Amino acid sequence: MPHPELRIRPATPDDIPPLCDLLSLLFAQEADFSPDPARQERGLRLIIEQPQTGRIYCAADADAIVGMVSILFTVSTAEGGRAATLEDMIVHPARRRQGIGERLLQEAIHRAREAGCKRITLLTDAANTPAMRFYARAGFLPSRMVPFRLALST
Question: What does each C-alpha distance from 61 to 6, 15, 56, 127 come to in angstroms?
């Protein structure tokens, strides 16, 4: 079970260094991305300083930030309203299987609903079957849409 003092809270600028550490763990396991702390810091700062863009939530206990999730906002013409993208979700490997990921995901879902979003979309690596099972348990369904990406800068 999680530490009794574990709480889910919005990220602040002071949280950026440990969030960068978590993103380094996440991007090291993803096929399409590589850790780049300077880029991760810029991205985190943009979200934290511009809440209309999205939100970042931390799982924090008395000692450290042990997990994070971010949601980004857009508008869906298909849904006729606001939609969210679940962008980054990571729990420190030493703290997995304690319900922290579920709490983070439920917070993201709750906050997306609260923000008027009609849908949450997420991407996960095709080979990450544990993540796919995790999201399926929370009600996410596979999409028949196929993502494509065009890098506009390096």
Answer: 4, 13, 16, 31
Q: Contact, 58 vs 65, CB < 8 A?
A: yes
What is the torsional sign of CA 88, 92, 97, 99? negative
Residue pLDDT, tens place only, 11-54? 999 999 999 999 999 888 877 777 789 999 999 999 999 999 99
Whether 20 and 56 have beta carbons less than 8 Å apart is answered as no
> Could you give the CA distance from residue 15 to residue 116 in angstroms, rounded to a whole number?
26
Q: Which pairs from 46-53 meet CB under 8 Å and 24+ separation?
A: 47/72, 48/11, 48/12, 48/13, 48/15, 48/16, 49/13
pLDDT digits (tens, 9 = 90+) for 69-104: 999 999 999 999 999 999 999 999 999 999 999 999
The answer to whether 50 and 58 have CB atoms below 8 angstroms apart is: no
Q: What is the pTM of this model?
A: 0.91
- Tally of CB atoms within 10 A around 107: 19
Integer Cα distance of 29 and 24 in angstroms = 9
Contact 100, 88 (CB under 8 A): no
